[in-house]
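Hi team,

As requested, here is the filled-out complex form for the nicotinamide-adenine-dinucleotide run. I kept the field names the same as last time so the parser does not choke. Let me know if anything looks off before we queue the next batch.

— J.
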Amino acid sequence: MGQLDGKVALVTGSARGIGRAIAEKLAAEGADLALCDLQADWLAETAAAVETLGQKVICLSADVSKGDDVNKAVADTIEQLGGVDILVNNAGITKDTLLMRMSEEQWDDVLAVNLRGTFLFTKAVARPMMKKRAGNIVNVASIIGLIGNAGQCNYAASKAGVIALTKSSAKELAPRGVRVNAIAPGFIESKMTEGLPEDVRKKMLDAIPMGRFGKPEDVADVVLFLAGVSSGYMTGQVLTVSGGMVM
Ligand SMILES: NC(=O)c1ccc[n+]([C@@H]2O[C@H](COP(=O)([O-])OP(=O)(O)OC[C@H]3O[C@@H](n4cnc5c(N)ncnc54)[C@H](O)[C@@H]3O)[C@@H](O)[C@H]2O)c1
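And here is what came back:
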């Protein structure tokens, strides 16, 4: 018996990295999965892993920044899997550069995926969840949204926005039985971070009291806690998973 038996979870950006680890963790606890990424065929490996765990899975193509894509993804999930109990807003991008060099396009692109995408998916699931008087939304923010970072004005603003959206939507939806929480990962090994120069990686490692970078599974464990029954009296919270980098 898993703690998510009979639940349906929709995870955005689940083709790889943290999103894939989250999808597999929720499936291992008994949830059926709606996987969502820019292209459905990128989701084949995650889908195979979920199926191996014995859960139902559907693969959805959607750009989280486009309202029509998002509404269709939620409608398809409800039609094919019978509902949506858990939403994990994980899809995210970076377009790093210093403020003085940042183009309007670099600003807009990052805000569109990270913040607008989280807003659009939250809005799309809010109605069916409120109707059911139950639901659980977990937003993947970042420690950068809490502490800022040179070269990431767009990303930091988007993730701070995700935290503010988490708290405001938590207040609106709590009376209808829907919880909304966020997770703020630190430096996690993934495609997003593997391109960083060696000197930057070393500097970051020196700043992590636990002395190691995080793994996608470290984040997935805490998402499971927020998505599951053990956090039943928590909403509007931001949990930091950074090996002690941010306290
Ligand atoms: N890796 C880290 O150190 C770290 C730290 C803090 C927060 N995060 C956050 O965790 C989340 C996952 O990051 P990751 O490291 O696994 O990144 P990743 O680049 O490995 O994976 C991101 C996934 O999102 C998908 N995606 C991107 N734009 C999309 C869009 N418009 N619509 C649908 N899907 C889209 C990508 O195709 C990819 O599969 C992001 O929100 C990121 O900001 C990562």
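Two things worth flagging: Residues 146 and 160 are 6 Å apart (CA to CA). The chain has a mean pLDDT of 97.

Thanks,
J.
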